[in-house]
Amino acid sequence: MPEILLSSDAPPTSNRPKLLVLEFWGLGDLTFATPLLRAAQERYDITLVGKEHATRLLQPTFPDIRFISFEAPWSAYRGKYALWRWNWGKVFALFRQLRAEPFDAAVSVRNDPRDHLVMLLAGARKRYGFAVWGSDAFLTDPLTRSLPQQHKVEDWRDIGRALDLPGMDDAGPQLDHAQYRSESVDQMFAGLSGKPILCLHPGARIGVRRWPEAYFVRLVEKLRARFHFDFVLVPGPEGCGPALTSLADRVLRPLTVPELVDVLGRVDLLLCNDSGPGHIAAACGRPVIPIFGPTNPDWFRPWGDQHHVVIRDICPWRPCFDYCKFAEPFCMTRLAPDRVWPEIREHLCNLIDRGLLSREFAGVEALPVS
């Protein structure tokens, strides 16, 4: 049974209009919401309902937002449709808590009737979302996307435009890295050589999104032979094998969410899978090279033109959105390091030429870079 945590904080008491934001999913999804949050906080008292990590990720950047921690059972990877397993007492407790506050507006970016029903049962006067399967009945303002297929940041921008918020045409995900700086991360980085830092986060919450560790080993060996950097390894919850740890100049211990933001905001480049850390680094203004497998980068890539998505249409069923029909995710296991190395090398040289990566990263022996 998913644990559901409710905030006991008192609701806001100002006379400004109140906005309810629903984002029940992962760290990356929360970064996508930051353009709307940044603009809306100038006009609204905001309450955001999401997983417990929403508070740890966003509160340093948005200290005036009120967070309610709720582990929505329909956001589980497995068993989300087993309604008899849901803790209905906790679900209805959330509804009662939300109805006690007179929300002027509520928003959700998900194509999910359950989110739209939550907004209705919360009693929000205006309810904005992208209707699906008849859920326009729950919405006062069903929205149409600007493009049939667009990035989730564009979805949040469309909602911001519906709320008549300023700056939506140019707004992008952003975390205020300075608010996450800590002495603990100072100590983690102490003693490095001072060369540019390449960080690798080889984990991902969903197993089919993980590029094989042996492939990362081969790629790092190629990077070591061509470029000049300190290599910092951030193990995922599943850990890392000795082949990767032996290559690293620094292997970090398990990190809290604020520490993860601080680490990713300090590095010069992040190499990762399609996972939350890539979006956090991008929101801190750091270049990211993510390895994509089953998901659609048109919707979920790190936002910005300084990133490079590594992907191949190896499997005809891609995108399958994390539910692979085969015994192994061929979109990842058949994406060999030698196939992706030329494009990664070219992208790094391009970043150096554009001034987005220090020329020191190229190393004296590697100049010229292009």
Automatic annotation (TrEMBL):
Report any Pfam family annotated for this entry: Glyco_transf_9
Q: Set out the biological process GO terms recorded for this chain's protein.
A: lipopolysaccharide core region biosynthetic process
Could you state a single Gene Ontology molecular function term?
ADP-heptose-lipopolysaccharide heptosyltransferase activity
UniProt entry keywords in alphabetical sequence: Glycosyltransferase, Transferase
Q: Which CDD domains match?
A: GT9_LPS_heptosyltransferase
Q: Which residues cross the membrane?
A: none
One annotated Gene Ontology cellular component of this protein: cytosol
Q: Which domain of life is it from?
A: Bacteria
Protein name (Swiss-Prot/TrEMBL): Glycosyl transferase family 9
Source organism per entry reads: Chthoniobacter flavus Ellin428
Query: What high-level taxonomic lineage is stated for the organism?
Result: Bacteria, Pseudomonadati, Verrucomicrobiota, Spartobacteria, Chthoniobacterales
